[in-house]
Design a protein that fits this description.
globular; 6 strands; 240 residues; alpha+beta; six-stranded antiparallel beta sheet
Length: 240
């Protein structure tokens, strides 16, 4: 393999899974990320409400009253050395049991671990492997000590819809693929329509659109495109 291929693969590995948001996102089969688990886990029992997870309130929980059993979600701070920052990673009961095995065998305070997704997007049988990658260096340990841990109960209270997709998290912006899809469509519209779109969501750049606003943004874009076609049709002189 040439140096160019090695370099490109290295950059791809660096950017896979993490994105620019606060949460680790492994969206597709084979996506992986390398990092270190930091601090204490935050566990909660939740119910899927159709758009996001809702925390189980125990006695008097309406979901439990409907016969729906709660599921476990566990969040942890996760140091990503390629970004030099802490993100948040979350998984279910199987993922956490695997993490406990790794903790008991290797400990979590001195190792970087590789987490890889096994399963296509939307596959309910998706699993994740957690394997030791390499020991943390003294410099990395010092870097971690200087970082401020995320307040997990506060951050995850906004909810996420699964381990591999936190589109309902208000702190996260749309991914690059979504931005690349929306921008050509917006560029084809009149400037006034673009201003309407940006103003509706209080942003100056399409890339700054909150992931939680994606559904509403697509609906507005479709209306703007429809209005543009109507204006174009009325400008045609059928007798010309």
């Amino acid at each position: 393999m040439s140096n160019g291929w090695d370099h490109a693969q290295g950059l791809a590995d660096k950017h896979t899974g993490s994105g620019s948001g606060l949460f680790v996102r492994l969206a597709n089969n084979g996506d992986k990320i390398v990092g270190a688990f930091v601090g204490e886990p935050y566990a909660r029992e939740v119910h899927w409400g159709g758009e996001r997870y809702e925390e189980c309130t125990g006695d008097g929980c309406s979901f439990c009253g409907d016969g729906k059993r709660p599921s476990l979600r566990v969040s942890m701070n996760f140091f990503v050395p390629s970004e030099g920052d802490l993100k948040i990673i979350e998984g279910g009961v199987t993922w956490f049991k695997d993490l406990l095995k790794v903790r008991d065998k290797y400990g979590l305070g001195k190792w970087l671990f590789e987490i890889e997704r096994h399963g296509e997007a939307g596959d309910p049988k998706t699993t994740y492997t957690i394997l030791p990658e390499e020991r943390l260096t003294d410099a990395q340990l010092k870097e971690i000590d200087g970082l401020r841990l995320h307040d997990l109960p506060k951050v995850v209270s906004g909810g996420g819809d699964s381990f591999d997709s936190y589109d309902k998290d208000s702190g996260r912006t749309i991914d690059g693929r979504t931005a690349s899809e929306l921008m050509p469509r917006l560029k084809a519209l009149p400037r006034s329509a673009l201003d309407t779109f940006l103003g509706e969501f209080g942003i100056q750049r399409v890339r700054d659109l909150a992931a939680s606003d994606e559904k509403a943004a697509r609906a507005l874009l479709e209306r703007l495109e429809a209005d543009g076609k109507q204006e174009e049709d009325t400008s045609i002189d059928p007798f010309a």
